[in-house]
What does this fold into?
Amino acid sequence: MIAKLTGMIDEIGTDNLVLDVQGVGYLVFASTRTLAAVGGVGDGATIYTEMQVSETDMRLMGFATASERDWFRKLISVQGVGGKVALAILGALETGEISRAIATGDKAMISRANGVGPKLALRIVNELKDKVGGLMVDPFVGAGGAVHAPSSNSADAVSALQNLGFKPVEASMAVAAADAEAGDGATLDALVRLALKKAAK
It folds into this structure.
């Protein structure tokens, strides 16, 4: 199993790229978001990969982040979602947006992707809503892509919200927003209170 490739981009197509790894060119299919993120021809790149094998075909799917690859695996576990549709969803939505859509039951957001109708979007939301908490959501990435390091109380605050009935992704995102606003000096109690306000909005 090939989990990751690092090399130089030889070619970029509409839905794939060729990555030269020590003289071997790997054809990697990817979402438009991944193709835009990895760079241009001649650039060095690291691609996280997933092999898809069928009776008639074998394809290497590529992703700019491990989080995208994890989401791809979850999406194709849903009946009716193949590799092409999963890549379309990952091209239309960021992983955090997919997490929020599933956590809140927003099938309309999932339907933004090409090839995803209302029925399939509803199935994706229903089948993945209990699994979304186990995925990497990157909740501490703030505006402009700036990464906000979580405070020492963040994990306890997330746990507290989950004990109050919030789903893992909802708790993580509420605490991330509260943590960014409150700063490093916030007590656990203050962080939980602020996170509850964020979650209520």
The chain has a mean pLDDT of 81. The first helix runs from residue 32 to 37. Residues 115 and 193 are 41 Å apart (CA to CA). The chain has three domains: 4-63, 66-134, 143-200.
